[in-house]
Automatic annotation (TrEMBL):
GTP 2 binds at residues 193-200, 240-244, 305-308. Keywords: GTP-binding, Nucleotide-binding, Repeat, Ribosome biogenesis. GTPase that plays an essential role in the late steps of ribosome biogenesis. InterPro entries: G_ENGA, GTP-bd, GTPase_Der, KH_dom-like, KH_dom-like_a/b, P-loop_NTPase, Small_GTP-bd. GO terms for biological process: ribosome biogenesis. It comes from Candidatus Kinetoplastidibacterium galati TCC219. Residues 5-170, 187-360 form the EngA-type G domain. It comes from the Bacteria. GO terms for molecular function: GTP binding; ribosome binding. GTP 1 binds at residues 11-18, 58-62, 122-125. Belongs to the TRAFAC class TrmE-Era-EngA-EngB-Septin-like GTPase superfamily. EngA (Der) GTPase family. This is GTPase Der.
Length: 449
C-alpha cells in the first residue's frame, strides 16, 4: 500500500519550525488545514523537496512542563500530530544552544516510545560543527542534522536521509505503480467527509451489503483496507479513508476528523467523492479539503447526503447555498442523495465514471487546435497595452488532470478572465465534466513567427 510519509515538526517556541515548514511547502500561505483558533496548534501542508513529496505538520511552540493553559492545549495538539506522523523532526536552536525545555521535550518523546525521531539543529550557519554536534548529543537521539531553515543549508541532506530510510512508504514521484495505476482500468475512489456525514452508510449502499467499515476509528480491526466492487461494466477500488497505519496507541488520542488520513486518501485516488451533510452545510474543514482536492488535480464528485431530511419547501434554497459556497468546483457534478434510502446512488456512480473518463481523456491535437481557433474566432484575446496575444495551436500535455498546452506569441499578457473563457470552451468541446483542467502557455522566442 502506498502513501506519502507524514513528517511533524516539534520543538520549543522560536526554533524555526514555521520557517522550515514554509521552505517545504514553498509558500507562506500554502496551508491545507489551518483550523480556526488552532494557529497555536498544528498546520498541515503539502511538502515537496527535490523529487520527494510528503505531508508536513507544523506544531506550536512546545513546553511540556508548562502549566499555562495555552501551552497545555499546544501540548495536546502536538501529541496528536506526533501520533499521526511517520517521522518526528525534533528541532532545536543552534544559536541559543540547549535549554531545559529541550530536555523536557526529549523526555516527552521518549515516553511515547517513538522510534523515528531525527534531531535537527537549526540556525547552525557559521557555527563550529563538531562542538555543536557534541553539545546536542546529550539529548540522546544520536548525531544531529545541522541545517539553516532560512538559507536552506543541509535541508536537502535531511530529506534524502528520510527517504533513504527503510520505512513503509514510497516516493510518489518515483513510483511507477502509481504513475501507471490507470492501466488496470479500476477506478480508485475515495469518499471523504467529516464524521457522521454518512460515509459508512453510503459504502454499504454501494456494496449492496451490510459491511462494517468504520472510517474514523483508528486502530479498528478490518479485514481489508481497499474494497473492490463493481457497477455495471466498471470496476472500482474503494480507498479506505481511515488511513493505512493501524496503531493501537493512536486510538486513545487521535481526533475523529483526521486531516492526514483525508489527504492520504485523496493522493491515492483517481476520483474523490466529497460527502457533505445537507443539514449542516459546509464547514471550514469541508471548504479546505475541497480546495485541496482542486489543487491536487484529482477528479471530483460532490454528494449532499441526508437530502430526505430536508423539507421540500427548503430544498431549492439549500441547493442554491451549496452551489454558491462551492462555486470554485462548478465543473464537478453535484448530487443530492440519501445513503440510507439508497436514492440517487446510481446517478452518483455514473458521475464518478464520467469524472474518471474526463481525467484520463485523450485529446487529439487537431481537435484541440480546432477548438482553440473556434474559441478565438468567437472571442479574440484582449490586448494588453501594445501587445496582442497570438494563440496559434494547442495540444494535450498530460492527464489526470488534463493539461492543454497553447503555443503562440505574447502569451504572458493573457488575462485570467480569458483563460477561464478558454477553459469553458475546451470543457464544452470535449465534455470534461468532473475534472480540473489546466492550461499552460508557451511563447515563441521569435516575436515575428
Amino acid at each position: 500500500m502506498y502513501y506519502k510519509p507524514v513528517i511533524v515538526l516539534v520543538g520549543r517556541p522560536n526554533v524555526g519550525k514555521s520557517t522550515l515548514f514554509n521552505r517545504f511547502t514553498k509558500s507562506k500561505d500554502a496551508l491545507v488545514a489551518n483550523f480556526s483558533g488552532l494557529t497555536r496548534d498544528r498546520i498541515y501542508g503539502d511538502g515537496t523537496f527535490g523529487n520527494h513529496e510528503f505531508i508536513i505538520i507544523d506544531t506550536g511552540g512546545f513546553e511540556p512542563s508548562s502549566k499555562d493553559q495555552m501551552y497545555v492545549k499546544v501540548a495536546n495538539q502536538t501529541n496528536q500530530a506526533i501520533l499521526e506522523a511517520d517521522i518526528v523532526i525534533f528541532l532545536v536552536d543552534g544559536k541559543d544552544g540547549l535549554c531545559s525545555t529541550d530536555y523536557d521535550i526529549a523526555n516527552f518523546l521518549r515516553k511515547l516510545s517513538i522510534t523515528n525521531i531525527l534531531l535537527v539543529v537549526n540556525k547552525s550557519e557559521g557555527k563550529n560543527i563538531s562542538a555543536m554536534a557534541s553539545e546536542f548529543h546529550e539529548l540522546g537521539f544520536g548525531s544531529p542534522f545541522l541545517i539553516s531553515a532560512s538559507h536552506g543549508d543541509g535541508v536537502g541532506l535531511l530529506i534524502e536521509s528520510i527517504f533513504e530510510s527503510k520505512l513503509n512508504f514510497i516516493d510518489y514521484k518515483n513510483d511507477d505503480v502509481l504513475q501507471n495505476d490507470n492501466l488496470d482500468r479500476k477506478i480508485r475512489l475515495s469518499i471523504v467527509g467529516q464524521p457522521n456525514v454518512g460515509k459508512s452508510t453510503l459504502i454499504n449502499s454501494m456494496l449492496g451489503e451490510e459491511r462494517l467499515i468504520t472510517f474514523d476509528s483508528p486502530g479498528t480491526t478490518r479485514d481489508s483496507i481497499n474494497v473492490d466492487f463493481g457497477f455495471l461494466d466498471r470496476s472500482y477500488v474503494l480507498i479506505d479513508t481511515a488511513g493505512l497505519r493501524r496503531r493501537s496507541r493512536v486510538s486513545d488520542y487521535i481526533e475523529k476528523f483526521s486531516v492526514v488520513k483525508t489527504l492520504q486518501s485523496i493522493e491515492k485516488s483517481n476520483v474523490v467523492l466529497l460527502l457533505l451533510d445537507a443539514n449542516i452545510g459546509i464547514s471550514d474543514q469541508d471548504a479546505r479539503i475541497a480546495s485541496y482536492i482542486l489543487e491536487s488535480g484529482k477528479a471530483i464528485v460532490i454528494a449532499i447526503n441526508k437530502w430526505d431530511s430536508i423539507s421540500v419547501d427548503s430544498r431549492s434554497t439549500v441547493e442554491k447555498e451549496f452551489k454558491r459556497k462551492l462555486h470554485f468546483l462548478s465543473f464537478a457534478n453535484m448530487h443530492f442523495i440519501s445513503a440510507l434510502r439508497k436514492t440517487n446512488i446510481k446517478r452518483l456512480l455514473f458521475s464518478v465514471n464520467d469524472a474518471y473518463d474526463a481525467a484520463f481523456a485523450k485529446l487529439p491535437t487537431p481537435k484541440v487546435t480546432r477548438a482553440l481557433l473556434n474559441a478565438i474566432k468567437q472571442q479574440p484575446p484582449p490586448k494588453k497595452g501594445i501587445f496582442v496575444p497570438k494563440l496559434r495551436y494547442a495540444h494535450q500535455g498530460g492527464h489526470n488532470p488534463p493539461v492543454i498546452v497553447i503555443h503562440g506569441n505574447c502569451l504572458t499578457n493573457i488575462q485570467d478572465s480569458y483563460i477561464r473563457y478558454l477553459e469553458s470552451c475546451f470543457r464544452r468541446e470535449f465534455k470534461l465534466s468532473g475534472t480540473p483542467l489546466r492550461i499552460e502557455f508557451k511563447s515563441s522566442k521569435n516575436p515575428y513567427v
